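Table S2 (text version). Query chain:
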Amino acid sequence: MTNTETLLALAEICAAFAGFAALVSALRRDRGAIAEAVHDLLRLRLVIASSVAGVAAALIPVGLAGYGLDIDLTWRLAALVFLIFDNGIIVSFLGAYGPVKAIVKPDRLAIAVVSSLEVVEQSSLALVLFGLWTENAPELYVTALIANICQAGFIFVRFVGSALHHENQLFEG
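Corresponding structure-token output:
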């Protein structure tokens, strides 16, 4: 497998997002309104879940290649597992958001950015899974990982911004 180093580097980036998100949540004092706290918790959950899925997705092709599988099959299986992880996160988020959507105002910017990146991620993985562009499977897979990292990064930035905004309100009031 020619891009093992790239995949390992992407796994490290994903792990860093999960760690930073956990650190910010530990440092944040929860004195905001219930809706803001719930929204921040949903963001934290998304950042950590996306980051952990990104770590796993970056390592899966490396692990599968170790079994001596055909390279096309390796990429297709990795894409299938990545899609299962990714869609599992979406279903889980929607399940957690459903009961609180009456009190949590949607972050329309985050929805637009993350949804756009999700289209890139899922379409790249679908091309790999269905063998529609086999000569570019590694590049498409890396594109999906980068879209996943961008999603986690964007949600992380929104989470940090929200946490810092709540902290600034404490000093102003």
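Notes on Table S2: The CA atoms of residues 10 and 157 lie 18 Å apart. Residues 167-173 have pLDDT under 50 and may be disordered.
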